[in-house]
From TrEMBL:
This is dolichyl-phosphate beta-glucosyltransferase. Pfam families: Glycos_transf_2. Its main location: endoplasmic reticulum. Residues 20-180 form the Glycosyltransferase 2-like domain. The keyword Metal-binding does not apply. GO terms for molecular function: dolichyl-phosphate beta-glucosyltransferase activity. It catalyses: a di-trans,poly-cis-dolichyl phosphate + UDP-alpha-D-glucose = a di-trans,poly-cis-dolichyl beta-D-glucosyl phosphate + UDP. It comes from Streptomyces coerulescens. It is found in: Endoplasmic reticulum membrane. Its EC number is 2.4.1.117.
Length: 827
């Protein structure tokens, strides 16, 4: 590596000028002469306006005599600095700005594509209190004369988009070579730069932004000049430099936090994560089988170019409206190749694990941006928001309530709208985000909107000045967002609410509300304080333990609110958490330890459109991010307090509140084996085209193992019955599972009771009608509790014994196609 020599100067400048003009140059002999003439003529013509000035030409190892041209002018206000070899524009600018001494520093390209007369605009912006004023070809009011080649223009625009999204949001044009700085700030920023190429503009502006200094983007006149030194590969080099700049500016904590969230998620799913196809989460009840089927059937539809919103593989022959069943097409469709290659069990495992970690990372980013700057406090707050007890309950097998990374992004965009800087752009982005969240989970979006509304109402009360400034751009952005969102989701929503197998409403478990005790008790999966009996008594199943924040956290939150009551954010968060908890109590609630029953607040929303299908206990999930942010505020305050006793007592209280909430890894067991009759494909010789395979009893929400058979068979056969939401009766009221028929009810009752009913001729006739409706090709009875009673009942219904084939009893329903089946004695 050659050693760089000290920059050389052609004159000693004892006094600091008012303005320094820095011009980077590489082989610019032919273009530099008119540029220097224009600069000197303009600055000399109005010396009272610009004061004393100097021009510093930074020669980046030119080989055409560029440096000789500068020294030949013998103007004491014109200076040359040189470095060793050609190292790039960034290196030349770093040398040139370091050699400058002006109170203001103008950096301009050697071709003077932006006329020097535009300095007036930049100087005015600098005089308004900004530390830098940069020329922009993209700001409203900019004028473009001669244009670049179309391809170069497109590449430049694409590069600006990348820069705005990754390194320097808010600035439309970072690469225009005409920038005016406060002199000391410029020398500090360029001295801190590291890149040698074209990306130095981004690095310098980012340095100023991170220092909290204002940068004004000023529209200018600009015309392309022939002889540009920017080559095709330079665009790739700039992107590489931008990546280095962004990576270098990341705080280690901002990288470590998402990584730690991922480790936490993997630990939670450790019982299944490393063998997803062979392990089952028993506390998911039948939901793991259902969600694997959702991913499998969506991938199958995509692979065969069928409508991804409908299938008749379950609920045959009527089918299933998949959009009305929360199949998350926003993930299940793009992940179809993974599902087809690795299987739905792998896809579901990755979605749950990565989705939970991504949700925590998104909350972390939001908290760091708007709530606290301290990374430890933000990590704890985001961890509580994403790994709170209700989230862990849904983590068993409800990806639509675990994959919530879009919710913090939507909140961020809404807060940007409140600032009113770019309501059109932010409104469009909000609309696209909302549309995508609809395809991930509508109920989660509805609950998020409810939480945001509660927070906004409370914050408007405590900060009326902020509300007055924010409501117009927010309303405008929301209207724009709605105009963008609705066309994107109108077809899926019409299909969901008016398509085949749609339904009007659905009745949930009558216990689908929170008891006040559920808000104070510990969750079943709490590592240290879990109480399965209490949790099961207060929630209707293990996947719907939607509160269970524990009394220590509730006490801690109360203490935080009392101590920091003066902060408007704390008051608004407190109202949001309390209101959500109150709404989750349902239509009515009983005061604990008394017989007093009071009207519940949910009665106001229960029968309203959209809310009628919400499980009201889930409203308590809104408390998780609200409590997480309160925790972040408190911890951030404790870590900077000057009173050690207060700090350590406070942190001890935080630890005592959070330790009982740390979840144990989710329970996992070996998966039930698929009978060889299904696994080895024997079923295919019994089921003809257009027929179904009928498990005994039919699959339903209480036993959906047949869905696993179907996915393991590559979705090769159709199933009547099933585990999904569908319509019932003429009013099309929503129910769980297929519309019941006489035979399906009969077989379910036998499975549940073990009693063999007296089968009459009318029952056999009804069974024939039902089997014909299901287009049944074969009845299949796998070993299970009460299988003897089921076998005897089926024999009476079909008029003959079954045959033991591949680990199951089989009744072939094709008359005359096979010898009469006879039972065999099991070994």
């Amino acid at each position: 590596m050659t050693q760089e020599r000290e920059p050389t100067r052609t004159a000693v400048r004892p006094e600091a000028p008012d303005l320094s003009v820095v011009v980077p140059a590489y082989n610019e002999r032919h273009r530099l002469t008119p540029t220097l003439d224009a600069l000197t003529d303009y600055l000399s013509a109005d010396e009272p306006r610009w004061g004393s000035w100097e021009i510093v030409v930074a020669d980046d190892g030119s080989t055409d005599g560029t440096g000789d041209l500068v020294t030949a002018r013998e103007d004491p206000r014109l200076h040359l600095v040189t470095g060793e070899g050609n190292r790039g524009k960034g290196h030349a600018l770093r040398l040139g700005v370091a050699a400058s001494r002006g109170r203001r520093v103008l950096v301009t390209d050697a071709d003077l594509a932006t006329p020097i007369e535009e300095l007036e605009r930049l100087d005015k912006a600098l005089g308004e209190g900004n530390c830098a004023a940069i020329g922009s070809r993209s700001a409203p009011g900019a004028t473009i004369g001669a244009r670049q080649h179309r391809l170069r223009e497109l590449l430049g625009r694409a590069g600006n988009v990348v820069i705005r999204r990754t390194a320097l949001p808010g600035i439309r044009d970072t690469q225009c070579g005409f920038k005016l700085f406060d002199g000391d700030r410029a020398r500090e920023a360029y001295a801190a730069s590291r890149v040698n190429g074209w990306g130095i503009d981004v690095e310098v502006l980012r340095h100023l932004r991170r220092a909290g200094l204002s940068v004004a983007e000023v529209p200018v006149r600009w015309s392309h000049r022939p002889g540009s030194k920017v080559g095709p590969l330079d665009y790739a080099r700039v992107l590489t430099e931008i990546t280095r700049i962004a990576a270098r500016s990341l705080r280690p904590a901002d990288v470590f936090a998402p990584f730690l969230f991922l480790l936490m998620s993997v630990a939670l799913y450790s019982g299944r994560f490393f063998a997803p196809a062979q392990r089952y989460l028993p506390d998911s009840l039948r939901d793991q089988n259902q969600w694997e089927w959702f991913f499998a059937v969506t991938a199958d539809n995509v692979a065969h170019f069928r409508n991804p919103l409908f299938t008749d593989l379950q609920g045959f022959p009527d089918g299933v409206n998949l959009m009305a069943n929360t199949v998350m097409p926003g993930l299940s469709v793009p992940l179809a190749p993974l599902t087809l290659a690795a299987g739905p069990a792998v896809t579901l495992s990755l979605v749950m694990t990565l989705g939970l970690a991504a949700t925590a990372a998104a909350w972390y980013r939001l908290i760091v941006k708007y709530v606290v700057r301290g990374r430890i406090a933000a990590f704890l707050g985001a961890g509580l928001a994403a790994f709170a007890p209700p989230m862990i309950s849904h983590a068993h097998a409800h990806p639509n309530f675990v994959v919530l990374f879009m919710i913090p992004l939507i909140i961020d965009r809404a807060l940007r709208l409140c600032a009113g800087n770019r309501p059109v752009r932010d409104g469009v982005v909000l609309g696209v985000m909302a549309a995508y969240q609809v395809l991930l989970g509508e109920e989660a979006l509805l609950l998020a909107a409810l939480g945001m509304l509660l927070f906004a109402a409370a914050y408007a009360v405590v900060r009326r000045d902020a509300a007055r400034n924010a409501w117009r751009p927010l309303l405008r952005g929301i209207l724009i967002g709605a105009a963008v969102c609705l066309p994107l989701i109108v077809y899926p929503l019409v299909w969901q609410f008016a398509g085949p197998q749609s339904y009007t409403d659905i009745e949930h478990n009558p216990r689908s509300f929170n008891s006040p005790l559920a808000l104070l008790a510990f969750a079943e999966r709490s590592w240290l304080a879990g109480d399965a009996e209490t949790a099961k008594a207060l929630a209707f199943n293990t996947t719907e333990q939607n509160a269970f924040y524990g009394w220590p956290l509730v006490l801690l939150a109360f203490a935080i609110v009392v101590r920091l009551w003066e902060r408007p954010l704390v008051r608004a968060l407190a109202f949001t958490a309390v209101a959500a908890a109150f709404l989750s109590l349902g239509r009515e609630f009983r005061i604990p330890l008394t017989g007093v029953i009071l009207p519940g607040p949910w009665e106001l929303l229960a029968d309203k459109p959209l809310f009628e299908a919400v499980i009201e206990s889930r409203v308590a999930m809104i408390c998780a991010p609200a409590l997480g942010m309160l925790l972040a505020v408190a911890v951030d305050r404790l870590l900077v307090t000057r009173h050690p006793a207060t700090r350590w007592v406070g942190l001890l209280g935080v630890a005592l509140a959070l330790l009982p909430l740390i979840p144990a890894p989710l329970r996992a067991v070996d998966r039930a084996e698929v009978p060889p009759f299904i696994a080895d494909g024997t079923w295919a010789s019994y089921v003809r085209e257009g027929e179904s395979l009928v498990p005994v009893p039919l699959p339903d929400p209480s036993d959906a193992e047949a869905l696993h058979w179907q996915t393991e068979a590559g979705l090769g056969f159709r199933l009547p019955g099933g585990y999904f939401n569908g319509p019932y009766g003429d009013e099309r009221v929503g129910i769980y599972g297929a519309e019941p028929r006489f035979t399906s009810n009969l077989l379910r009752d036998v499975r549940n009771t073990g009693d063999i009913p007296p089968v009459e001729d009318s029952w056999r006739e009804q069974a024939r009608v039902d089997l014909a409706y299901w287009k049944a090709g074969v009845l299949v009875l796998a070993p299970q509790p009460n299988d003897s009673a089921l076998r005897a009942t089926v024999e009476k219904l079909v008029g003959g014994p079954g045959k033991w084939v591949g680990g199951v009893w089989v009744w072939d329903l094709h008359e005359g196609t096979r010898p009469r089946a006879t039972p065999i004695t099991l070994p």
